Amino acid sequence: MSAKDFVFSWGMVFAYVLLNAYGALVIKYKINQLGAVSFESMEQSLQYFLRLFTSPLILTGLLAIFVSAIAWMAALSRLDLSSAYPVAVGLNFVLVISVAFLSFREPVSALKLVAISLILFGVFLLYRDW
Predict the structure, then answer these.
(1) Which residue among 11, 40, 60, 83 has the highest number of C-beta atoms inside a 10 angstrom radius?
(2) pTM of the full structure
């Protein structure tokens, strides 16, 4: 693989991670504003989702997730799934958990930190040239 192909391919993986994380985080942000969906009546549920899907922020999140899928397909057209996927998942874990902790004050336990460390260590081992 040429240097140009390498940069493009892994750039698409990183674009996928960033766009996917952005989509998840802005959707969570808006849901936090609206509160939990009520399933007591169909009308309440429909009103909730109508408010959700007419939010410009939600639309940017959904667009980001859609574009992330395109970036992912571009990456997979040049990389092995067994190489790209572990990196994408590991980076996504770290990014989403970090931003959720900082922005939404979601708890990060010691066990969660150990799990993230193990995932990242596993990705490191995957690329280690023995």
Answers:
(1) 83
(2) 0.85
